[in-house]
Protein backbone atom coordinates (compact mmCIF):
# COMPACT_ATOMS: atom_id res chain seq x y z
CA UNK A 1 0.00 0.00 0.00
CA UNK A 2 1.37 3.33 -1.02
CA UNK A 3 0.81 6.06 1.65
CA UNK A 4 1.20 8.89 -0.88
CA UNK A 5 -1.79 7.71 -2.87
CA UNK A 6 -4.21 7.47 0.06
CA UNK A 7 -5.90 10.77 0.93
CA UNK A 8 -6.26 11.56 4.61
CA UNK A 9 -9.84 11.41 5.68
CA UNK A 10 -11.32 13.45 8.50
CA UNK A 11 -8.48 15.95 8.47
CA UNK A 12 -8.91 19.30 6.85
CA UNK A 13 -6.49 22.11 6.28
CA UNK A 14 -4.83 22.98 9.58
CA UNK A 15 -3.14 26.26 8.89
CA UNK A 16 -2.31 29.03 11.28
CA UNK A 17 -5.08 30.29 13.58
CA UNK A 18 -7.06 33.08 11.96
CA UNK A 19 -6.01 31.99 8.49
CA UNK A 20 -8.87 31.09 6.11
CA UNK A 21 -9.39 27.42 5.45
CA UNK A 22 -9.99 27.97 1.77
CA UNK A 23 -8.80 30.91 -0.32
CA UNK A 24 -11.43 33.62 -0.61
CA UNK A 25 -13.17 32.60 2.61
CA UNK A 26 -13.43 35.23 5.40
CA UNK A 27 -11.15 34.89 8.40
CA UNK A 28 -12.81 34.05 11.72
CA UNK A 29 -10.92 34.85 14.89
CA UNK A 30 -12.22 33.64 18.22
CA UNK A 31 -11.59 35.62 21.37
CA UNK A 32 -12.52 35.20 24.99
CA UNK A 33 -13.41 38.09 27.27
CA UNK A 34 -13.32 37.65 31.03
CA UNK A 35 -15.21 40.16 33.14
CA UNK A 36 -14.06 40.22 36.74
CA UNK A 37 -16.45 41.97 39.08
CA UNK A 38 -14.61 43.12 42.17
CA UNK A 39 -16.37 43.97 45.38
CA UNK A 40 -15.75 47.55 46.47
CA UNK A 41 -13.52 47.82 49.54
CA UNK A 42 -15.21 48.15 52.91
CA UNK A 43 -14.56 51.26 54.95
CA UNK A 44 -16.11 50.04 58.27
CA UNK A 45 -17.44 53.55 58.96
CA UNK A 46 -20.37 52.45 61.16
CA UNK A 47 -18.20 50.18 63.30
CA UNK A 48 -15.65 52.99 63.63
CA UNK A 49 -18.36 55.46 64.62
CA UNK A 50 -19.64 53.15 67.37
CA UNK A 51 -16.07 52.46 68.51
CA UNK A 52 -15.55 56.21 68.73
CA UNK A 53 -18.77 56.93 70.61
CA UNK A 54 -19.03 53.92 72.92
CA UNK A 55 -15.75 52.01 73.00
CA UNK A 56 -12.95 54.53 72.95
CA UNK A 57 -10.02 53.23 75.02
CA UNK A 58 -6.78 55.10 74.29
CA UNK A 59 -8.61 57.05 71.53
CA UNK A 60 -8.49 53.99 69.26
CA UNK A 61 -12.06 54.65 68.17
CA UNK A 62 -11.06 58.11 66.95
CA UNK A 63 -8.11 56.70 65.00
CA UNK A 64 -10.36 54.04 63.47
CA UNK A 65 -12.91 56.71 62.49
CA UNK A 66 -10.20 58.82 60.83
CA UNK A 67 -8.95 55.84 58.79
CA UNK A 68 -12.53 54.94 57.84
CA UNK A 69 -13.12 58.46 56.53
CA UNK A 70 -9.83 58.29 54.61
CA UNK A 71 -10.93 54.95 53.15
CA UNK A 72 -14.28 56.38 52.06
CA UNK A 73 -12.53 59.38 50.46
CA UNK A 74 -10.14 57.09 48.55
CA UNK A 75 -13.09 54.99 47.36
CA UNK A 76 -14.89 58.11 46.06
CA UNK A 77 -11.78 59.25 44.18
CA UNK A 78 -11.40 55.80 42.57
CA UNK A 79 -8.23 54.65 44.35
CA UNK A 80 -9.48 51.20 45.35
CA UNK A 81 -6.08 49.93 46.54
CA UNK A 82 -5.68 52.93 48.87
CA UNK A 83 -9.24 52.44 50.09
CA UNK A 84 -8.49 48.77 50.89
CA UNK A 85 -5.37 49.79 52.81
CA UNK A 86 -7.12 52.44 54.90
CA UNK A 87 -10.15 50.17 55.41
CA UNK A 88 -7.93 47.36 56.67
CA UNK A 89 -6.18 49.71 59.08
CA UNK A 90 -9.55 50.97 60.36
CA UNK A 91 -10.70 47.37 60.84
CA UNK A 92 -7.54 46.59 62.84
CA UNK A 93 -8.06 49.57 65.15
CA UNK A 94 -11.73 48.62 65.58
CA UNK A 95 -10.79 45.05 66.52
CA UNK A 96 -8.19 46.20 69.05
CA UNK A 97 -10.62 48.72 70.52
CA UNK A 98 -13.38 46.09 70.79
CA UNK A 99 -11.07 43.56 72.44
CA UNK A 100 -9.80 46.09 74.98
CA UNK A 101 -13.30 47.24 75.95
CA UNK A 102 -14.39 43.59 76.14
CA UNK A 103 -11.56 42.85 78.56
CA UNK A 104 -12.49 45.91 80.64
CA UNK A 105 -16.18 44.94 80.80
CA UNK A 106 -15.34 41.30 81.63
CA UNK A 107 -12.93 42.42 84.37
CA UNK A 108 -15.56 44.76 85.78
CA UNK A 109 -18.17 41.95 85.87
CA UNK A 110 -15.68 39.61 87.59
CA UNK A 111 -14.73 42.24 90.19
CA UNK A 112 -18.41 43.00 90.92
CA UNK A 113 -19.28 39.30 91.34
CA UNK A 114 -16.23 38.47 93.48
CA UNK A 115 -16.95 41.43 95.79
CA UNK A 116 -20.39 40.14 96.79
UniProtKB/TrEMBL annotation:
Organism in which the protein naturally occurs: Labrus bergylta
Family the UniProt entry places it in: Belongs to the CD225/Dispanin family.
InterPro entries: CD225/Dispanin_fam, IFITM_antiviral_protein
Transmembrane segments: 45-67, 93-114
Keywords noted in UniProt: Membrane, Transmembrane, Transmembrane helix
PANTHER family in the record: IFITM1-RELATED, INTERFERON INDUCIBLE TRANSMEMBRANE PROTEIN
Name of protein: Dispanin subfamily A member 2b-like
Gene Ontology cellular component annotations, sorted alphabetically: plasma membrane
Subcellular location per the Swiss-Prot or TrEMBL entry: Membrane
Amino acid sequence: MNPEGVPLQGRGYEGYPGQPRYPGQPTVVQSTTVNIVTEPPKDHIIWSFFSFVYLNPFCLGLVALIYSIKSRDRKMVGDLEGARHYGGTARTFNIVSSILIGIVILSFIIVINVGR
